[in-house]
Amino acid sequence: MKAAENRENSQMFDQIAGSYDFLNHLLSLNIDKGWRRKAIRSLAEIHPRTILDVATGTADMAIGVLSLNPDKVTGVDVSKGMLDIGRKKILVRGLSEKITLIEAACEALPFESCSFDAAMVAFGVRNFKDPELGLSEIFRVLNPGGKLVVLEFSLPRQTWLRALYRFYFHHMVPAIGRWFSRDLSAYRYLPDSVEAFPKGEAFVTLMNHAGFSNADYKPLSAGICGLYTGIKKN
Question: Where are the domains of the chain?
């Protein structure tokens, strides 16, 4: 069942891969770039040498985290279309020795235990078919003392802003997505998956269940996005 679900997910993202980066920045009014920088900065304190980027997509985070000067970044994703675009970006920038992209599901990471100093997931954890298993796998492949950082969409806390945000997400986002990507279903999936995602303390609880210590949640941009962190204790 999980394999079939992952194939369905990968096919959806394959279809929108060509317009994914453009629409990400357009639909978030470029605010997503600042969120990504904050997530990367939250890893700086541990000086990671090896970093895993789960649900790497077109490798924006994998490329961005090179600002921390790691030895190696490995990105994984179930979408071949997304990875193909990511590989082209890496090749053009001459980063092939620093970044490797692999087609794999988060629920079955193809790495030995204790392989990475840090892990990241940017706007991909709500696409996990089994979030707790995915988090447990990330925990397994982290070194003791390793850190996980997760960025994910959420819902604003203020009632009026939440109503405005929901209108934008459920009506305007699918229309804009369909116009540019010609794929309505993917951009209907986006707001539906955000609504269903276990937000805030609920996701912190999932991180705790997966084994992470000091799990924490910080709302960004009035709660539109959440920044989650957790440590694999020594």
Answer: 2-156+198-231
The CA-based dihedral angle spanning residues 21, 228, 124, 66, taken in that order and rounded to the nearest 10 degrees:
50
Contact predicate 80/103, CB 8 Å? yes
Question: CA–CA separation, 227 vs 218, rounded Å?
Answer: 5
Per-10-residue mean pLDDT, the chain, length 234: 46 59 63 93 97 95 98 96 94 98 96 98 91 97 98 88 84 69 61 84 96 96 93 92
Write b or e for each residue in 172-195: b if 16 or more Cβ atoms lie within 10 A of its Cβ, otherwise e: ebbeebeeebebeebbebbbeebe
Q: What type of residue sits at position 115?
A: S
Domain boundaries 2-156+198-231, corresponding CATH code = 3.40.50.150
Token pair in block for residue 143: 């070194």
CA 90 to CA 83: how far, in whole Å? 10
What is the spatial distance between Cα 17 and Cα 20, in angstroms, rounded to a whole number?
5
**For residue 33, what are its two tokens?**
């770039």
pTM of the model: 0.88
Asked whether 102 and 37 are in contact (CB, 8 A), the reply is no
